Amino acid sequence: MGNIMEKLELTAQSMYCKKVEELTPSELHLSLGKAVMGEIAPNWEASKAKHNNNRRAYYFSAEFLMGRMMYNNLYCLGILDDVKKLLKKKGVDINVFEDIDDAALGNGGLGRLAACYLDSAATQEVPLDGYGIRYKYGLFKQLIKDGYQVEVSDNWQRFEDPWCLRREDEAVLVSFKDQTVRAIPYDMAVIGCKTSNINTLRLWQAEAVNDFDFTAFNDTEYDKAVKEKNDAENITKVLYPNDNKYEGKVLRLKQQYFFCSASLQDIMRRYKAKHGNDFSYFAKENAIQLNDTHPVSCVPELVRLLMLENMNFDEAFEIARKTCAYTNHTVLGEALEKWPADLMTQVVPEIYHIICLIANKCQEELTAKGISEDMKAKMRIVDGNVVHMARLATYASTYVNGVAQLHTEILKDDVLKEWYQVYPERFQNKTNGITQRRWLGLCNPELAAMITDKVGSDEWLTDLSLISKLNESVNDTRTINKFNTIKKKKKVQLAEYIKKMDGYDVNPDTIFDIQVKRLHEYKRQLLNAFSIMTIYYRLKENKLKNWTPTTFIFGAKAAPGYARAKAIIKYINEIANLVNNDPDTKDLLQVYFISNYNVSYAEKIVVAADISEQTSTAGLEASGTGNMKFMLNGAVTLGTYDGANIEIAECAGEENEYIFGARVEDIEKLKAEGYDPKKLYDANPEIKRVVDTLIDGTFDDDGAQGEGSFKELHDSLLKDSSWQKADNYFLIYDLPLYVDAKIKANADYADRKAFGKKCLMNIANAGKFSSDRAIVEYAKEIWHVSHK
Ligand code: 26Q
Question: Which of 201, 288, 410, 684 is at 20 to 30 A from 23, Cα to Cα?
Answer without folding.
Answer: 201
